[in-house]
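Hi R.,

As promised, here are both runs. First protein below:
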Amino acid sequence: MTRKKVKLAFIVNDSARKATFKKRKKGLLKKVDELSTLCGIDACAIIYSPYDPQPEVWPSPLGVQQVLSKFRRMPEMEQSKKMVNQESFLRQRIAKATEQLKKQTKENREKEMTQLMFQYLGEGNIMHNVNMLDLNDLAYLIDQYLKDINRRIELLTRESQSQSQLPMPPPPVVKDEVANVEEEGQGSHAQQGLNINMDSMQPKENWFVNLMSGANVDQPHVFGDANQQSGFWPNTFFH
């Protein structure tokens, strides 16, 4: 259940005023205690009332004297920097409420003129029953809408121009990569063929050197060997 908003006015009834005083005083001292404990600040409270012969102090008379001594040691400008009384507090609240009222009045007027504008645009009627004040406000509102539209158009135009001026990324090169792969493949096959030819040539060179030096080598005829058809000297005459 929501609490009812209290009207800030003097309570005429004595008993109700006394009950409210006791209740609010207890709540105020509790809040000061919580503020001092949670935030670690120096605070005190002195409450005079017609219901008690002596003022009620918090946290103690000694604590109140310490806080007041600390306050008096401050420069005079610092003392009155954030000091308020009942009159200044009410003035601040009135100024704040007045500013909120002006803001709300302006928003309501803009909504009213916007509704009027769309009403005449939708029905296509001529504004016969509109006074001069409404026409001036409606003209101002339309002018603001046009300025917002022009600013939006300029922003979108600058964004499109900046995007069109960006350099296009180069297309990916595919042919060079394929050519490199083919060259690498051909190079590996050529090297492999050269190694095979050199291996097959080695026994022929050894046999020829032994023959020229006159060494007696009992070795089968290499030219007629069917296993050497893939060698360096293929010749069908010696088969």
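And here is the second one, sequence first, then its structure tokens:
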Amino acid sequence: MSRRSKVLMIWVWAVVVGIPAANGCFPGEQAYEEAEEAALVYTNATAVYSSKFHGNESKAVYSPLMVGLTLIHAAAAEGAVCLDGTLPGYHLHRGYGSGANSWLIQLEGGGWCNSIRTCVYRKTTRRGSSRYMEKHLAFTGILSNRAELNPDFFNWNRVKVRYCDGASFLGDSENKAARLQFRGQRIWVAAMRDLLSKGMRNAHQALLSGCSAGGLAAILHCDEFRELFPRTTKVKCLSDAGLFLDSQTRRSWVPYSPELVQWCSEVAGGGKESASSVHQPSESNSANCGNWPPFLLHQCFFPQHIIATVKTPLFLLNAAYDSWQIQSSLAPPSADPRGYWNGCRKNNAKCTPSQIKFLQGFRYRMLRTVRRFSMSKANGMFINSCFAHCQTERQDTWFADYSPAIRNKVTDDS
């Protein structure tokens, strides 16, 4: 297959759904940031890329663009700070030529903290404090500046907004006793305001994207992003690996999405800890939930319940066998004390026939969930049958030889 992007010509949405064992999928791919078969290793600003696909090996060596961290100094006055009170930040690489007035905003992902204990720990990491963030970040995949690796967005203004609030850029509260600031919404506003002042307000086209927790944030903030621009600006949103399902499995010993259910309940004020001590949603985020009763309020944080309310054109990119959801939601170690799912959870080649059948049921639920969404001509999706998570940020899954394909087609073929 020729080297091409799965979201080539992204302004022309299409609906593409994969079948099991689609060409280009990785056998036994590990979860986000834990991949072993396909990885980018950075040494002295040099990336050594090596991937294995069904016995075929593809190697390339190149130096990725390293982009410096910009702290948002005006954010302090607005109370827009990370969990530990430090300034939020982003990485910006300026566009040029035909992309000088086009902007791509990528919201960083990285899980959630769903209790005071986990948030206290998180503020000692790059996910909760800019003190620990990398001063320079490699721009690869959808953020690459090389036309041969990222033909659609290489010369756009490309931004990576760092994630340090622990709740998908949501919430507006604090816990003084634990010295925690839950200011995700304020960070979102401060980052957008700073970027608008640096030329984004003049954008002819703008794309809000994100991966994992950032993919969820891209959905939740999509319409807010649209309102930042005049009607003449073409605005769309892309959620990569953000389609976290709210669904109960028949096997009670494998609880579905326990982390997300707990986190969302606490965000909405219905968990063991009050909303004043864990992320409290702002009015702008709660608006998507309308007049939902309190016992259903947590559902507004699961994309399947809110994608129908998003007015701005939205594209969903997801693996039907999302490796994070399989490892952390479908069969987490805490729900599998005997280790029955241990091998399958880490490598699908080790799954038993009954486990494969169970995972195919997960795929079916995902496709059923987006069926109505796919009927809108304004929306689009690319759902492949890979064991993967976050495909836009990795060069091997974004634009490379043997990148994931569906019946030898990518989005622009459909």
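A quick note on the second one: The mean pLDDT is 78. Let me know what you think.

Best,
J.
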